[in-house]
# Entry
Amino acid sequence: MLSQVIWWGSNVLEGCLLVRGASSRLLFRYPVFYTYLLLVLLQSPIRFVAYHWYRQTWYSPVYWTTEFLGMAMGCLVVFEIYRVALEAYPGTAKMARNVLLFLFVVALAQCGAALVRDPHLLGETTPLQMERALRTVEAIALVALVTVFASYSIPFGRNLRGILLGYGLFIGERVICLTFVPVAGRDFWFYAYSASYLVALSLWLAHLWSYQAIPEAENAQLERDYQRIARVTQRRLQEARESLVKGLRL
# Structure
């Protein structure tokens, strides 16, 4: 009964968010986030059809395909949060985007190397283990962004703050469940995880009811620090290139 209440409540809130996003034009401000919501909303009827008509052959592939699509879109939501949050700081935004891409590339390279060393690893790795690794990377990225903004006293704005709070709560709860709680039956943690998404949807609806521009930050120290780090890095790279050239000439 409780799971049905959570399921129907989530669908209703997702529908309200999409309607409000279209009417307030927030959908065009955060296209990845609203696409993520639409995908999650469509998961339920797709899985319902697969379960009741093709349970033996199609339900498991359909379930995990939609689940991984949702996780992939969740990663893109993190990139969108960074994009909007650092919009006024182009240099810092470029560095953050490159760092995030580098981390994902390194993670994929490590997975590829592990599979080359042990071809049976893929069969021994469960989808939940893959999700735990991905959700952990998302959580680290969000904590890093909040830490930077708190250090420089940069405002997020009402809309972005709501997306960050809701998605951070959802990711944090999921990481805890996947790391410390065994997946077995419908216990307290099963309902806690489901309810955390309901709370996230409520936060999003409250913060995304209408568009509010992000206040301009009076402190431009973040961008100045980036420029200083970029100059130091460029100088050291130039020195390293010159040392390499001299070494090759000897």
